[in-house]
Amino acid sequence: MVECECCGLKEECTQGYIRKVEGEFDGKRLCGLCLEVVRDEVKKGKKQFVEVGEAITAHMSFCGKHRNNNPATLLADGLRQLLRRRC
Ligand SMILES: [Zn+2]
Predict the structure, then answer these.
(1) 57-80 pLDDT, tens per residue?
(2) Cα-Cα-Cα-Cα dihedral of 37, 77, 54, 47, to 10°?
(3) Which residues, chain by chain, have CB under 5 Å from ion ligand 1?
């Protein structure tokens, strides 16, 4: 089990997957949802975020603000945000 360093969501991951995520995201362990959001930020915003680390920091502060919500709410919010961006 791996705990997301952003939102604290626990996910079951293989060692290979964890290493891949850590390699891509500055050695951070992120859940699938946070990973998608950060990846999205980096892809769309070269002006906003110069590097992955900045996007992660920004997303971590976003998650931190919502930490008091229960994980289900957090997940729903994240998904909604993600879907809005995809449209
Ligand atoms: Zn997360």
Answers:
(1) 888 887 776 655 566 666 777 777
(2) 70
(3) 4, 6-7, 9, 31, 34
